[in-house]
Design goal:
Structural class: alpha+beta
CATH architecture of the largest domain: Beta Barrel
Number of strands: 10
Distance between the termini: 103 Å
Shape: globular
CATH class of the largest domain: Mainly Beta
Strand order of the largest sheet: 3-4-5-6-9-10-8-7
Helix content: 25-40%
Order of helices and strands: HEEEEHEEEEEE
Largest sheet: 8 strands, mixed, barrel
CATH superfamily of the largest domain: Sortase
Length: about 230
């Protein structure tokens, strides 16, 4: 009996030793992987921070080139433009500059503003919102399409209301729009960018706003241009 008990204890001890060796080996493999993952995440966060700093400095330089006293102030969502009187809302057509910079989109009620660049490539949408190629430019008689990520610059769109004022500011002029309506559509729906021949603004982002992973739908804001009393 004592012999069988000793054999059982020895077997259990050997089994535990094997398990401990496996666990120790697994930890030795996992530790460098976790360390490498931490370095990758740290590098990504640092890169995003530097890229955001670049966009913010670009915005400040663009605003500094405007006629005084226009200057930017900081908000939780990024730089905010100062209030503008109706007499400065222009109807001049604005085009992007040689760097692709088009202007700044602002919603005064939300204290929200973001930089606009030409194009909707992923590189552009990481650092700003993008003017959709093929749509009208600000001030033109057509539909100005602007796209942005729901988890970055266009997250505040969920708080928009009908009749909210949207200002689109460029180095040449201001353009004013009032929110008309909202729609949730499929990604394949392209009719949202059609033009009525009048000044329009359409903002597009993914939906739902807090969906994990690639969002299955698009949230669309439709706004009409407010005719300016006098141009710049």
């Amino acid at each position: 009996m004592d012999g069988r008990g000793a054999e059982a204890r020895a077997f259990r001890s050997k089994r535990y030793s094997i398990i401990e060796a496996i666990e120790a080996g697994s930890l030795r493999l996992i530790e460098p992987l976790l360390f490498a993952l931490a370095l990758v995440l740290l590098g990504y966060v640092s890169w995003v921070h530097l890229e955001s700093a670049y966009v913010y400095s670009h915005f400040e330089r663009a605003v500094a080139d405007l006629a005084p006293p226009q200057r930017a102030a900081s908000t939780p969502f990024g730089p905010q433009l100062p209030p503008v009187s109706p007499s400065r809302l222009a109807t001049t057509v604005s085009m992007p500059d040689s760097r692709g910079f088009l202007g700044v989109l602002e919603v005064p009620r939300l204290g929200f503003s973001t930089v606009i660049f030409e194009g909707v490539e992923e590189k552009t949408l990481r650092r700003a919102v993008g003017h959709i190629p093929g749509t009208s430019f600000p001030g033109g008689k057509g539909n100005v399409g602007i796209a942005g990520h729901r988890d970055r610059f266009f997250r505040p769109l969920r708080e928009l209301r009908s009749d909210d004022l949207i200002l689109l500011h460029t180095p040449h002029a201001y353009y004013a729009y009032n929110v008309d309506s909202f729609r949730v559509v499929s990604p394949e729906e392209t009719g949202i960018l059609e033009s009525s021949g009048k000044g329009q603004l359409t903002l597009v982002t993914c939906y739902p706003f807090f969906y994990l992973g690639p969002a299955p739908e698009r949230f669309v804001v439709f706004a009409r241009q407010v005719k300016a009393p006098t141009p710049l």
